[in-house]
Amino acid sequence: MFPTPDLSHFTRNDYSQIYEPDADSFLLLDALELKLNEILELKPLIVLEFGSGSGIATTFVAKNFCLTPSLFFAIDINPYACYSTKRTFEQNNLHHKHCLNIVQCNLTDPLIERLSSKVDLILFNPPYVPTETSDVKEVIERTYAGGKQGIEVIEKAIEQASRLLSSKGLFYMVALEENNFDTLKELANQVGLNIDIILKRRTLIERLFVVEFQRQ
User: Considering the entire predicted model, what is its pTM?
Assistant: First the structure.
């Protein structure tokens, strides 16, 4: 089992401005570790994370799955999350081995054309909680408010991933039982992606799972 990236540089004040890694974050790391051989065989050159937050997932992949120098894109609409991802990458001494590009934007809106069919590995721990709308102003609310059925942001991410993924690229995403796997499958199939559940976990308040997408 790979160790969790060092997050000791964060304080309570930091977690008032970014999402503090929780059960869903660690579920994503565990799912990635389950797929270790598959990802190593892929030899990802370009890795992208939607909503990088603390940087825990990007750093975990850079530390354990990319044996040669790789290009990372950490995307977040929250400027403090962008700064936090950079801090975590450096705290774990990865900035000398890999190239980290941090972009403050909404998913990959400004990058989609330039990165089309070039991304080997995509990660996303999305705002998946069903709420009245995903269009919220509070920073922390943005990390969990998923809108109707919790899939407003997820739906857009799946569509963008279908354009970003390289021919053998992989996309790993956390989801909530209420997001409905059949709905996610329909969204994936509409844009030419296959989807499979690779890991499930029940917490005190949620039933979570991680899905893997790849081109049909």
Answer: 0.96
Q: Please compute the mean of the pLDDT values over residues 196-200 and round it to a whole number.
A: 98
Which residue type does 156 have? K
Torsion, CA 8, CA 140, CA 213, CA 167, rounded to 10:
-80
Gap between the Cα atoms of 98 and 112, Å rounded: 22
Angle between helices 79-91 and 56-64 (to 10 degrees): 30
pLDDT at res. 182? 97
User: Among residues 105, 144, 124, which one has the least CA distance to residue 48?
Assistant: 124
pLDDT at 186: 98
Q: In CATH terms, is domain 12-215 a member of 3.30.540.10? A: no
pLDDT confidence of residue 79: 96
Greater confidence (140 vs 188) lies with 188
User: What DSSP letter does each residue of 114-169 carry, written as one string?
Assistant: TTTTTEEEEEE----B--S-S---SHHHHTTB--GGG-HHHHHHHHHHHHHEEEEE
Q: Where are the domains of the chain?
A: 12-215
Phi, psi (degrees; rounded to nearest 5) at 100: -105, 120
Closest CA to 43 of 60, 66, 59: 66
The predicted model gives 64-81 an average pLDDT of 96
206: three-class secondary structure by DSSP: coil
Alpha-carbon span 112 to 132, nearest angstrom: 28
Candidates 171, 157, 174, 178; CA nearest to 216 is: 171
Per-residue pLDDT at 39 exceeds 90: yes
